[in-house]
Amino acid sequence: MSPRALKPLEPSATPPEQIRNFCIIAHIDHGKSTLADRMLQITGVVSDRDMRAQYLDRMDIERERGITIKSQAVRMPWSTTDGTFALNMIDTPGHVDFTYEVSRSLAACEGAILLVDAAQGIEAQTLANLYLALENDLTIIPVLNKIDLPAADPDKYAAELAGLIGGDPADVLRVSGKTGMGVEELLDLIVEKIPAPVGTADAPARAMIFDSVYDAYRGVVTYVRMIDGSLQPRERLQMMSTGATHEALEIGVSSPEPVPTKGLGVGEVGYLITGVKDVRQSKVGDTITTHRKPATDALPGYTDPKPMVFSGIYPIDGSDYAELREALDKLKLSDASLQYEPETSVALGFGFRCGFLGLLHLEIITERLSREFGLDLITTAPSVTYEVTTDTGETVSVTNPSEYPDGRVASVSEPIVKVGILLPKDYVGTVMELCQTRRGTLLGMEYLSEDRVELRYHMPLGEIVFDFFDHLKSRTQGYASLDYEPAGQQTADLVKVDILLQGDKVDAFSSIVHREKAYAYGTLMAERLRKLIPRQQFEVPIQAAIGARIIARETIRAIRKDVLAKCYGGDITRKRKLLEKQKEGKKRMKMVGRVEVPQEAFIAALSGDVETKK
């Protein structure tokens, strides 16, 4: 704890000119959470005894993976020669799938610390977050972190950073989040460079909801940034989008644990508890005002995020459907980018079609559903949204292969994304080859420094949501970084591949793929299911088809009783008669028999794990 860290200021007594609101933005694993830990220690809001690594990462899954999933706001006091200031910091995620969390945090701030690893330099997500901050007109403070590492090259990357945002390399601050070196100077720079919040103290109250969480005991906890006016406890509040009114049971700040206060004034960042249990009452981006003296104009809010990847989530036990709905409602509160709607599947029963911002987002949500709510789930293969035009001119939006129209299809368009890949120049050839195999179109290539290149491509989203990132990392020994953003639609030669068991379609295994890759997908799934489905008393054909045309087939052989075991010698006609009788019985059984696909086979086939062979 620094001697300049003081007792936190009472929010209602803090004038706006003594408040600084800022966030930390960076690529994943560049040390945001570690730097936030040192700030908490130096400003004294967390004692050395209570300190732990990644203090602001509250979820077990964040701590295990070492990544930030949820933005966290915290208030810290800091004393300079100009007085004592209240610093409101928001620690943001670094992965591309959680960009929506970052964009909401930026709207609650006046400045941003752009953090770059002094051993790795600028990465793709660093650039993406920087552009987001510049769009919000934030003051940028460039900082190099991890300067204590043996591999650090601060001079080289300071020049790279200064060239990116303009300025002198000497102005780039050098810190170590691990040792605390340079962190006090950074706090001074925040007070000096970042402007104070602007608002009208005597105007009707307006507060922007930038985040919210669900507490089992206290209901919905809403995090707000005050723009105009002030809010006090026991005051009646009004949500401007719904018109609903609630009483403010508690108002306070996170420091970093919740601290109740006498109210929030202009520029403050804090939390509200109204005791509301209905999670739909608190919408991120909504404006809160007072019921007694309401504001007339709502704040602009946020643009709704567009899901990039769709997947079906089904409970293994059908009776858990209501619990799954409630769990998704609560998760939607803490993750505003999650979208879902009910869906039914012939094979899997009742579930939800969910929209995610990427594959990591999907993985984290399913992991949280199973951990926090104790649900056993099946997720179907991820897909993207296709626009299908039929011969009659009707356009259908398809997020699930089962929605694909059965009639003749005139054209299919798929979403494309603008991809930015940052990598060392030695790997340019192998990455270009990878992008071409995924139907990528090169837009440009730019050298950021002597040995670092940025490749820009237009690529179909469906080609990169599965395993593109894994292949990119393996081809570049982990040095490449990826960022992408939506770039519209393009028409492509896409077909729906159905998987048939004994002539019946199994909708969970259907997929929309490019015609060139249809045969490979069909043979892969047929082979996979042959290994996974237990043998029946009758022969089971597994077929992959495009419309009525079969493109691949595998057969699960029947379990046969040895009917010739009792024949010792004798005429061949006797043996033939027994075999014919068995054959007739198998034929009758095949006509009435149904193939039951076990749940383990569904899970293994959709996840690609074929080692669970029966």
From TrEMBL:
InterPro entries: EF-4 (IPR006297), EFG_II (IPR041095), EFG_III/V (IPR035647), EFG_V-like (IPR000640), G_TR_CS (IPR031157), LepA_C_sf (IPR038363), LepA_CTD (IPR013842), LepA_IV (IPR035654). SMART domains: EFG_C. Residues 17-198 form the Tr-type G domain. The lineage of its organism: Bacteria, Bacillati, Actinomycetota, Actinomycetes, Micrococcales. This is Elongation factor 4. Belongs to the TRAFAC class translation factor GTPase superfamily. Classic translation factor GTPase family. LepA subfamily. Required for accurate and efficient protein synthesis under certain stress conditions. May act as a fidelity factor of the translation reaction, by catalyzing a one-codon backward translocation of tRNAs on improperly translocated ribosomes. Back-translocation proceeds from a post-translocation (POST) complex to a pre-translocation (PRE) complex, thus giving elongation factor G a second chance to translocate the tRNAs correctly. Binds to ribosomes in a GTP-dependent manner. Its EC number is 3.6.5.n1. It is a peripheral membrane protein. It catalyses: GTP + H2O = GDP + phosphate + H(+). It comes from Microbacterium testaceum (Aureobacterium testaceum). Gene3D superfamilies: 3.30.70.240, Elongation factor 4, C-terminal domain, Elongation Factor G (Translational Gtpase), domain 3, P-loop containing nucleotide triphosphate hydrolases, Translation factors. Its main location: membrane.
